[in-house]
Amino acid sequence: MPAPRLRSRSLRKLYRKVPGGRTAIHFKRRKPKAPHCSNCGAVLKGIPRELPYKMRSMAKTKKRPERPFGGSLCSRCMRLEMIKRARQ
Amino acid sequence: MIEVGRLVTKIAGRDAGCKAIIVEILDDKYVLLDGETRRRKCNILHIEPLNQKIEIKKNASHEEVAKVLKDIGIETRQTKPKPKTQKSKAKRKTPDQLRVQKEEKRKLRDIFRPKKKEEKAETKEATLEEKAGLVEEKHEHKSEKEEIKPKEKKAAPKKETPKKKE
Q1: Are residues B67 and B102 in the same domain?
Q2: Which residues contact A54 (CB under 8 A, 6 or more apart)?
Q3: Of A70, B1, B31, B92, which has the fewest Cβ atoms less than 10 A away?
Q4: CATH number of residue B55's parent domain
Q5: pLDDT tens track of chain A, all 88 residues?
Q6: Same domain (yes/no): B165, B110
Q7: Nearest CA in chain B to A67
Q8: Is the pTM higher than 0.80?
Q9: Any bridge partners for residue A13, and if so which?
């Protein structure tokens, strides 16, 4: 029986074969939801889906695309926005 | 719309939203841009032409473009890398310098090591002397014993044998 704190389903279970031959259950935190475009809601690309402690150790350039609105708008929505601004 | 001197905005990529001038038309797909963006080749699908057109020569230099754009109020991006500041680089030492370095090191060694050596040497000498003395004594004892023992041994059997004979 796992420890009471591990019995909740907020942790994901990883079945791992251990050197002894038995399969052990490793409990790990779930990864956060993938970020979405604030305009169209599409899943943003170029953003790693990692736990905060890993994101903290990453470089800024590895965490979002290097363009205006990178990390908040998808590329298509950003282009439309730029065209809109140019035509005003 | 796409012609040399046309003011455009870049739509895609990290230069998106920057204004630039078409400097040269490379082929039916690509143009050469210069201005707020870097001086670079660009797909015409990635630019949005604006109403303004500026008269410049085809394939004008970056400085010319910068001059023209300054009149409109657009500051160009310096595409050329900045002149490098002279940093002190680790140079290889000449053989003479290496020799001097080695000599200095040796001097330092001489300053620091001999004390330890002397101490060690003294201790070693003392121990050696002691040992030597002991060893000599032991040897002496052994030699004496050895000298004595054989006599005794020799003497003893001689004594025994005659007794038996008697």
Answers
A1: no
A2: A48
A3: B92
A4: 2.30.30.30
A5: 888 888 888 999 999 999 999 999 999 999 999 999 999 999 999 999 999 999 999 999 999 999 999 999 999 999 999 999 998 8
A6: yes
A7: B14
A8: no
A9: A27
